[in-house]
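Before a colleague's protein record goes any further, I have to sign it off. My question to you is simply how this chain folds and whether the tokens agree. I do not need a full report, just your reasoning and any doubts. This is what I was given:
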Amino acid sequence: MTTDIEHIFTAWDGALGAEDVDAAMALYAEDATLESPLVCPLLGTDEGVARGRGNLREFVEKVFAHQPAKRRRYRTGYVTDGARLHWGYRGPRPTGSSWTSSRAMEVRDGVIAHHRVYWGRVGVGMLARGEHSRQPVPIGAGGSAGFPPAPRRAVQVVARSAGSASGGQRTVLSRVLPV
């Protein structure tokens, strides 16, 4: 059985890879928010947050129009507590260095309510230099460009807190899926 979290994890990555705006929008709540370093330059706002599905659609269309034509990216596994989802990407740059980013999503009623994108220092530097464009990344570029795919294994971590104020236990699930 596929959970809402697992569905969003795989469908969002599929929509990104296929540059399918409609598939991406189907994953978001009508009143969803998305925070990303790209919101300001692509939407011309100082806030850095796209609000509502209409604003999100405009943002995602611009992301797809500006992302590199052939970006090699490797998705990590995800961590979830059933309502929040977190995972990362990493990939090569033409210079041989690598970039990293992570995604944090809050899921409500089976769709994304809040989505935050975080970039590492390389990604922020690329944005500052205007390098987020449709320049292809050569396959097999030097340095750390040859990342292997993420390991394929499943991990479950259960953390119980005894004596908590609520008296209950908290379960945190972590899964690594094939990429």
The mean pLDDT is 72.
